[in-house]
Amino acid sequence: MTTKVKAVAYRLTGGSKTVYSADYEEKILLFNNFKKQIEKLMGLMVTLVTDNLATELKQKISKDTVDSGMNKFEKVGQAIYKYSNQIEDDSSAAVLKTAKEIFDNAGQKHRSFRTDMLDNVQKSMKEWIETNAKNVSKELKSVDNKRDELDCAINKLRKKPDDLDIQAVKERAESIFKEELEKTDKLLDDEIKESQSVISSAMIALMEVIEDYNRCMKEIFKQGAKV
Question: Boundaries of each BAR domain copy (predicted)?
Fold first, then answer.
């Protein structure tokens, strides 16, 4: 029987259960809330750079997620090019071929927008989720395990209060639990602050990337309007 199962069994029969402080529990809730927000923002980043479901699926199954498939601007350019080859009027064909170049340029910028979004905005959030948040979850689980060990020792000592060996086990378990709890409590403080910094930095980067994208797109189509 594992320590966790033993601890649960003790508690079900009225045994001891070490209770976390309200402050610690609140920190866990706050941390998980920020974690969910970052995961949601990461999902929104994907939505912003995905033309449609079909393109998204192509990106997922392709080794090169940036260069896979044609985006919406390139599709328009390709359609214009095919049509320009079918008309006989040279003047009209020239206009359409120029339009294709404009949409190709827009398509390339759209690709770089996707890359910029993933590298400059999503990357830091993804790293925090996969590294920092994962480490916090691991430490929270470790504290829970140490609490189970402590509760098992306490309940054993209740049955044999004069057993010196069990007393020593209980004292050691209590010391380890307190040490783990203090370490994890501080880690929660640090990562709650870090998560806020990650979100703030990502939003600044997001606005900068979108501003650059809109400016470049405006310039591309402005040049096309002069033709």
Answer: 14-197
CA quadruple 210, 76, 221, 67: dihedral sign: positive
- The sign of the dihedral angle between the CA atoms of 17, 20, 26, 29 is negative
- Spatial neighbors of 170 by CB under 8 A, at least 6 apart, are 150, 153, 154, 156, 157
Question: How many other C-beta atoms are found inside a 10 Å radius of the C-beta of residue 139?
Answer: 18
For the whole model, what pTM was predicted?
A: 0.75
Predicted local confidence at residue 70, as pLDDT = 80
- Per-10-residue mean pLDDT of the chain, 227 residues long, equals 68 76 96 94 80 51 52 84 77 82 89 87 93 97 94 88 91 96 97 95 93 92 71
- Per the CB < 8 A criterion, the answer to whether 12 and 172 are in contact is no
- Around Cβ 198, how many Cβ atoms within 10 Å? 22
Please report the pLDDT score of residue 64 as a whole number: 44
Cα–Cα distance, 93 to 99 (Å, whole number): 10
Cα of 123 vs its chain's centroid, Å = 8
Residues sharing a CB contact under 8 Å with residue 193, sequence separation 6 or more, in sequence order: none
Nearest to 188 by CA among 149, 125, 120, 136: 136
